[in-house]
Every structure is written in structure tokens, then in C-alpha cells.
From TrEMBL:
It comes from the Bacteria. CDD domains: ABC_DR_subfamily_A (cd03230). This is ABC-2 type transport system ATP-binding protein. It comes from Mycoplana dimorpha. The keyword Transport applies. GO terms for molecular function: ATP binding; ATP hydrolysis activity. Keywords: ATP-binding, Nucleotide-binding, Transport.
């Protein structure tokens, strides 16, 4: 099956000479949740804006459900929902009216029952008659999501959807995204919250300086690039790592009570068995042993840091 969104060799340069995108190619599969991670200025919003028909690319091609986003703009815009970063809303309109208007703007027949369901799902129903200027930033962001959902898009782009909202609301939005995926909606989100990508994404894309560094299944990425750390707590402190253990590249804790060993989870052999035997042979008594897996944040920092 062809991807629902296909991005091919996409570039975007501005009159200033700044190149926001440098030959980006990306396939997005129908029904998946794809998280795009990248620092400020990486090109995330530019890429989304091109797919949604807001920005014109310098070169390259984007198709949505087989339709070219430039040539078949009306067809592609009908099936794409966008929740932008900016909280741009009509201050003196009510919640219900602004969401209903968004549905009509996209050529959909009035459906008050659907609007009510969307507002209830986003915990906005009790605010339906409230003017937008009286809402908090978090509430207004939920209204932006409601506006995008009002015309029942097949593809939903969420550009920093939980920026500025509290943790509880963030988790509510994660649950909403899962429900949308269950109905067949393809969700692409950009985020600065690593735990957000780790929690809900099927695949992770990392973009930096206008280039895609990788796009990988989340579980495969963790296996491929994740590392584990073994921390050995010693019964008695040591002043230095014994010479017999030098080839294990151990690091010694400040107090001399711990030895730290990093190893690759994808390696054929971790070397742990040999290390533990070597510790005993060196006369070091272990008090405790613990392991920890590198997080998606560790992987992200390593990728972006390595690209600089």
C-alpha cells in the first residue's frame, strides 16, 4: 500500500539565503503516529507548512493520498487537519461557534452532535458558550485541536500540541491521539517533550538543520541505538580501577564505591559475565548491581549533538 503522505527531495530556501529544508524525503504510513523531534529551527514547522499548503517549496514534491499538494490543493486540504503552534483565534467568538465555523469553512454540512462530541472529548463542553478571550492558553490550544477535528480529517498534523499545557492535560491529549488513531486517523506531531514521543509514537523521526537524521520504528530505535549501563556497588571503596580491568573501560564513581560499565544492547556479547568474573579475580567484593537503559532523550541528544 502506498504511503498516505510522500515527501520527496523537499527543499526550502528563503530570500535571505537561509535553507530551511535540504532535500528531505519521508514516507508516512496510513494510520500511524509519527513523532518528529528536533531543536528550534530544525525545519519541522516548515515541512508541515509545505505539506499543508501554507508554504511553497523551492523544489521537491509532496503527495497526500496520491494527490499533489500544489496541483490538487483543494483535494489535499480537505483531508488534512492542522493544529498550529500559534494561538491565533477570534477573541470575541464563542467556543462552539468558532469550531462550527471551521467545519463549514471546509465545506462540511452542519453537525452539532459531532461538535458536541469533540468538545466533550477535549473537556471543552462546559466552555461552549465562553468567548475565546476568556480562556487560558491551555484551553485555547484545545480549541485549536477541536477546530482541526471538526471537519473530520484523515491526516492530522499537531505542531507542538502540548506546549504550555500542564502534565495532566498533556496526558489527556495523548489519550485523544490514541483514540483518533483507533478510528484510522494518521497523526504526525512535532514535540519538544521527549516523553511525549516515547509514550505515543509508533515511529520517531529526528530532523536537524533541515535534514532528516533518521526515521525509525520506536522499539527498533531503542534497540539499535539504546545503550545500557551496569553500575556495580562495591563493598569497600577503591582509589582507582585495577589495571586488570582496564580493557573494560570502566569509570569510577567519585566516592570510589561504584564502578560504571556502559555496553551496547545490540552487541553479540555484552561482556558482563567476563566483567563480573574479573571483578572477583581482582579481589573486589560487590555489594549491589543495577542496570539502566538509555532513554529516547539520551538517543536524541546523541544524534543531534553528533550532527553539529
Amino acid at each position: 500500500m502506498a504511503p498516505i503522505v510522500r515527501i520527496e527531495n523537499l527543499t526550502k530556501s528563503y530570500a535571505t539565503g537561509f535553507q530551511a529544508l535540504k532535500g528531505v524525503s519521508l514516507d508516512i504510513e496510513e494510520g500511524e503516529i509519527l513523532a518528529l523531534l528536533g531543536p528550534n529551527g530544525a525545519g519541522k514547522t516548515t515541512m508541515i507548512s509545505i505539506v499543508c499548503g501554507i508554504v511553497t517549496p523551492t523544489s521537491g514534491r509532496v503527495t497526500v493520498a496520491g494527490h499533489d499538494v500544489i496541483r490538487d490543493f483543494r483535494k489535499t486540504r480537505e483531508i488534512i487537519g492542522l493544529v498550529p503552534q500559534e494561538l491565533t483565534l477570534e477573541a470575541f467568538e464563542t467556543v462552539f461557534n468558532t469550531v462550527s465555523f471551521s467545519r463549514g469553512l471546509h465545506g462540511k454540512r452542519p453537525d452539532p452532535a459531532l461538535i458536541e462530541k469533540i468538545l466533550r472529548d477535549l473537556s471543552l463542553w462546559d466552555k461552549k458558550d465562553t468567548m475565546l478571550r476568556f480562556l487560558s492558553g491551555g484551553m485555547r490550544r484545545r480549541v485549536l485541536i477541536a477546530k482541526a477535528l471538526s471537519y473530520e480529517p484523515k491526516i492530522l498534523f499537531l505542531d507542538e500540541p502540548t506546549a504550555g499545557v500542564d502534565v495532566s492535560l498533556r496526558k489527556e491529549m495523548w489519550q485523544l491521539v490514541e483514540r483518533l488513531r483507533a478510528t484510522g486517523v494518521t497523526v504526525i506531531l512535532t514535540t519538544h517533550y521527549i516523553e511525549e514521543a516515547e509514550e505515543i509514537a509508533d515511529r520517531i523521526g529526528v530532523i536537524d538543520k533541515g535534514e532528516i537524521l533518521l526515521v525509525e520504528d520506536k522499539a527498533a530505535l531503542m534497540r539499535k541505538l539504546g545503550r545500557k549501563r551496569l553500575t556495580v556497588e562495591l563493598a569497600e571503596p577503591v582509589e582507582a580501577v585495577p589495571a586488570a580491568l582496564s580493557h573494560y573501560n570502566l569509570s569510577l564513581g567519585d566516592d570510589g564505591h561504584t564502578l560504571v560499565y556502559d555496553y551496547d544492547t545490540a552487541g553479540e556479547r555484552t561482556g558482563i559475565t567476563g566483567l563480573l568474573a574479573a571483578l572477583a579475580a581482582a579481589g573486589l567484593r560487590m555489594k549491589d548491581v543495577a542496570t539502566e537503559q538509555s532513554s529516547l532523550e539520551d538517543i536524541f541528544v546523541e544524534l543531534v549533538g553528533g550532527a553539529k
